[in-house]
Design goal:
The protein is an alpha/beta fold. Helices cover about 35% and strands about 10% of the residues. The strands form three sheets. The protein has a four-stranded parallel sheet with strand order 2-1-3-4, covered by helices on one side. It is globular.
Length: about 290
């Protein structure tokens, strides 16, 4: 845990930006905080999902503006009706949180904007592997006062992944996004590819964690699969239009909701199982 100190500027930083209402009672700060926090504030989309999975609903005093976005969060349904952080410093101050969780939180410009008061703080590291996700779950569960829930959630995830086949069989896949962006190694999607037996094209080409690959370069690389966000299954804008170019139509596609992969979260198991099942389905249709 850390302590947050700073001065209040006129405008709270972008991480507290949003359109939702944020409210809470604002009694004087207690001299002794409860063993189990009762006014938890999340300042990060990935932290939102862990808090929603592990805390009691009544403990959660505020989430980020994207917490209810079904395209961004795997826990969006649980977030409905919970106050969302807005761009008002006064609102977060009114909560007087007894726990702030972020990924990470201590480097947040939003927290540096708060006045000279101390708030219990949990820093979560970015989770790009299953082991790192488990670590974040344990840390969050302990912080919100429900370590047993973290243990059960990890056991459930392990059970869901037990015996998961590797239908990729060493074939090459590219996680291809709007405007030709491709995700590289050392990322969550790369860990998912490895888990189901796929090789990341970005790694084969020596690309960084995020790069752009032109349509012509992708065709020349000839991956066995394209992994795409399910939101791009249909053309909705110019960015998604290139993913439907005729030159790519012969490359089999694995479609995954962005909400399952934008953060290291319990949705990891859903993503892995879905990707493996889609490869098996594609292979079945070839025989």
């Amino acid at each position: 845990m850390g302590r947050v100190n700073g001065t209040l500027p006129l405008v709270l930083a972008l991480l507290l930006g949003g359109a939702g209402a944020l409210w809470a009672a604002s009694p004087a700060m207690p001299t002794k905080r409860p063993a189990v926090p009762q006014r938890i504030v999340s300042i990060n989309l990935c932290a939102d999902q862990l808090v929603l999975a592990l805390a009691d609903r009544g403990q959660i005093a505020g989430l980020t503006k994207n917490a209810t976005d079904t395209e961004m969060s795997g826990e969006a349904a649980k977030a409905q009706g919970i106050p969302l952080l807005s761009n008002s410093a006064e609102q977060i101050l009114a909560i007087e949180p007894d726990l702030i969780i972020g990924m990470p939180a201590s480097r947040s410009a939003a927290l540096r904007a708060l006045p000279s008061q101390s708030y219990p703080l949990i820093d979560l590291a970015t989770a790009n592997t299953l082991d790192e996700i488990h670590m974040s779950i344990r840390q969050t569960a302990a912080a919100v006062g429900h370590p047993d829930r973290g243990t059960r959630l990890i056991a459930q995830m392990e059970e869901e992944l037990a015996g998961l086949p590797k239908p990729g069989n060493g074939r090459v896949a590219a996680y291809y996004q709007r405007r030709g962006y491709m995700t590289g190694t050392g990322t969550l999607i790369d860990d998912l590819m490895t888990r189901i037996g796929l090789v990341n094209l970005a790694g084969e080409l020596g690309k960084p964690p995020l790069s752009q690959l032109s349509l012509e370069e992708m065709v020349a690389a000839r991956p066995d699969f394209l992994i795409v966000e399910s939101a791009t299954d249909t053309v909705t804008d110019q960015g998604s239009e290139m993913l439907h170019h005729p030159a790519l139509q012969d490359i089999p596609r694995i479609s995954v909701p962005q909400a399952w992969t934008v953060c290291g979260s319990p949705a990891y198991t859903q993503a892995a199982r879905s990707m493996a099942a889609q490869i098996a389905h594609i292979d079945g249709n070839r025989t």
